[in-house]
């Protein structure tokens, strides 16, 4: 990736307030932001725009986040797309196994992580390149 071009992040989150907060904070950090309020729109945008990172909520209207992640992993580009799961689902063992099989970079529970911790994980993800 060109160093003078900002990293792009797709925020797939149905909560408008959280989506706007994340967008504002990440723009202020220098990232280019794309956003989607539901799963199928997020999947379509991801495959079209190919962002450098996807922040993906699991519980969204329509197509759920786990289905979005599985569909991404079936796409040639999506197989290696970087995804951070950002959700409030923390104790669904079946879902955790399915998500884990699709290799997210991180799995963060919203209520357990601050905005600063999320930003740190995003920076860590890009430092691994």
From TrEMBL:
Pfam families: Response_reg
InterPro entries: Bact_response_regulator (IPR050595), CheY-like_superfamily (IPR011006), Sig_transdc_resp-reg_receiver (IPR001789)
Keyword Phosphoprotein: yes
Keyword check for Cell membrane: no
Ranges for domain Response regulatory: 8-125
Positions bearing 4-aspartylphosphate: 57
Keywords: Phosphoprotein
One record GO biological process: phosphorelay signal transduction system
Protein name listed in UniProt: Response regulator receiver domain protein
